[in-house]
Amino acid sequence: MMDFARTKALFHLPEGVTYLDGNSLGPMPKTAAARVAQTVTAEWGEMLITGWNKAGWMAQPRALGDRIARLIGAAPGSVVVGDTLSIKVYQALAAALDLRPDRRRVLSDRGNFPTDLYMAEGLIAGLGGRHELQVVDPESVADNITDDLAVLMLTEVDYRTGRRHDMAALTRKAHAAGALVIWDLAHSAGAFEVDLAGCDVDFAVGCTYKYLNAGPGAPAFIHVAPRLAGRVRPALSGWLGHEAPFDFEMTYRPGDGIERMRVGTPPVIQMAALEAALDIWDGVDMAALRARSVALSERFIEGVEAACPDLRLASPHDAGQRGSQVSFRFGEGYAAMQALIAKGVIGDFRAPDIMRFGITPLYLDEADIDRAVATIAAVMDGRLWDDPAYRQRAAVT
Amino acid sequence: MMDFARTKALFHLPEGVTYLDGNSLGPMPKTAAARVAQTVTAEWGEMLITGWNKAGWMAQPRALGDRIARLIGAAPGSVVVGDTLSIKVYQALAAALDLRPDRRRVLSDRGNFPTDLYMAEGLIAGLGGRHELQVVDPESVADNITDDLAVLMLTEVDYRTGRRHDMAALTRKAHAAGALVIWDLAHSAGAFEVDLAGCDVDFAVGCTYKYLNAGPGAPAFIHVAPRLAGRVRPALSGWLGHEAPFDFEMTYRPGDGIERMRVGTPPVIQMAALEAALDIWDGVDMAALRARSVALSERFIEGVEAACPDLRLASPHDAGQRGSQVSFRFGEGYAAMQALIAKGVIGDFRAPDIMRFGITPLYLDEADIDRAVATIAAVMDGRLWDDPAYRQRAAVT
């Protein structure tokens, strides 16, 4: 039995705050501050350059990757940490297109996070316009998987609605059509069980600052199926993906397997925070996490739907089609969210009318859900979104 | 008058260590630990998602870029921080090639750091083999700048020998030939005065963990000349380089000027360490720094040459042709460097026979130089490199 009261106690949660935005930036594990301080003062400060060996900085991207691999159902040695999610999307798509030189079409959907589409645009423009990025509605993805498809590139969970694609079915259909697949796990890793190996996924990417709780600016990760890793040509062929980085050769030779997806110097201090976050994840039973995520989500939906008739559920009613977030549509959603935040319940807003709430069982319990529901009801009943102070837009929302 | 005893007191230098490897990884500014801890506990911990606005995380890449701009003679608003140096090289070269669609040749030299060449290889392969990467000897660069050149891509200071290119002359010649230039300032930024604006440089990139002392895994930076920034097409078109990232549009529109060279989420915790490092740099007179770097380097060269006839200077004798490092060639250089490190004088080794010493006036003084010289002399006189323990190679050197 997972003890979620125990995991909750491992996080620092500010006084008076009910935090339902862990799908955007997870809270701080209590050990993170000391772990980061150790890397700064005891490692950087005392070991200086020798920290690359002595403190194991150089090996961290693979070691942390292996710990993430368990959470996403990937084989050990098939995940490496580094860069940002945008960069990892670019690497994956460049590698996938290179493996399908005879095909020109990349398929994605409007539920994908914009940066994935932007990075694909930039890559395709660089490739000289021979390729096409097709962006369809989420419901039309399956129908557009046909024999001319090069790469299917999707984010598993829609960042606005929490709607979840059927990874197994879409991957199977793409493979049957001779296409490769790239899954973005930004809202999957740490949100529920993922089975990359079982679904035979080719490439996956994700970030670690959302459900994994590794802090602002935490590095991304990339997975390449072991059957492909030795064959991919890295577009971002940096020295730490070289077979022998410290031989300083004049030409690039790709490293062994997933090593070749490393690029430049890894973000040592950010990795220390990720390590602290993974210390918690190492003990988490993902099936139990998912069960509790569903139970808390259902409780939240029922509570809000009963108390707030003006809020319309934007997420699927069926838990099987949802990630670990719940979204509601409301025309004045931006101002309503500001009012909610002012009352200590933090969710976020996505244009044009989505109020998002992350349901993160590691540090949320029934009392938090009930408090959030009561506060949302108070905001709605009191029409607090009418207050001009809540209507003013901030730079980052 | 710069007071270098004052700047030295701002760094944590481990007991018993004379650190001449600041050209590889700078030491820790004493304020870095507290500054990083503040970002972790007071910002991430307490502000959670609101830190993007409240703590100014989103604005940091430009704010830090402006502070670096002063050190490299670039206009305010022309530098942005993020990613790794490898990624920034890729961005710069992709943008430069896009501005010269009629030309196919990229010129670099064997003194360039390998990752720059590797990233160019990867980019060129992705572009379909229409381009050519020509890598010549450093002395032959000027002769190969002819009217068919697309881009001249060089690291100003050779990472092995410290030999420094003539940025002004080579840039002038490249421009006269209709080519664009990219300067890698990895061993320039914080090492001496750089005048990007005065040299009319098109693109420059650099890292912040060497002379700038921002810590292991610190982010890189990129400069684009203001006359070009509004015209470049970003190959790595990530959402934070979008004109309106939080509008979550389906297609990419490049941001204003240098903003478009941002890609993904910035490394917030690493940026805190960089901020602490730049607090020191803000007070540094670069001309005074250079004068002291030359004086300390001359003292070091004279001392070693007098005491160690077996060491052959690999750096130029003429200070005007050197960066802020001094290298010596010695066949048993690897083992000799290990012996030296065991005695508390930290430099590093680059194959096949280069012993490197960074001369960093912010925290090195005459006593350090004299101690280093005496220790090198002791290692050489005692033939300590003969000890098998010093011959064993570590993974990272």
Automatic annotation (TrEMBL), chains A, B:
EC code: 3.7.1.3
Catalytic reactions on record: 3-hydroxy-L-kynurenine + H2O = 3-hydroxyanthranilate + L-alanine + H(+); L-kynurenine + H2O = anthranilate + L-alanine + H(+)
Cofactor: pyridoxal 5'-phosphate
SUPFAM superfamilies for this protein: PLP-dependent transferases
GO annotation, biological process: anthranilate metabolic process; L-kynurenine catabolic process; L-tryptophan catabolic process to kynurenine; NAD+ biosynthetic process; quinolinate biosynthetic process
Residues bound to pyridoxal 5'-phosphate: 85-86, 113-116, 155, 184, 187, 209, 239, 265
Broadest EC class assigned to this enzyme: hydrolase
Keywords (A to Z) from UniProt: Hydrolase, Pyridine nucleotide biosynthesis, Pyridoxal phosphate
GO molecular function, one term: kynureninase activity
Pathway the protein acts in: Amino-acid degradation; L-kynurenine degradation; L-alanine and anthranilate from L-kynurenine: step 1/1; Cofactor biosynthesis; NAD(+) biosynthesis; quinolinate from L-kynurenine: step 2/3
GO cellular component: cytoplasm
Pfam families reported in the protein's UniProt record: KYNU_C
Modified-residue entries (N6-(pyridoxal phosphate)lysine), positions: 210
InterPro entries to which the protein is assigned, alphabetical: Kynureninase, PyrdxlP-dep_Trfase, PyrdxlP-dep_Trfase_major, PyrdxlP-dep_Trfase_small
Ranges annotated as spanning the membrane: none
Cross-referenced PANTHER family: KYNURENINASE (PTHR14084)
Complex and partners: Homodimer.
Role: Catalyzes the cleavage of L-kynurenine (L-Kyn) and L-3-hydroxykynurenine (L-3OHKyn) into anthranilic acid (AA) and 3-hydroxyanthranilic acid (3-OHAA), respectively.
Family statement: Belongs to the kynureninase family.
HAMAP family: Kynureninase
Protein name per Swiss-Prot or TrEMBL: Kynureninase
Encoding gene (name): kynU
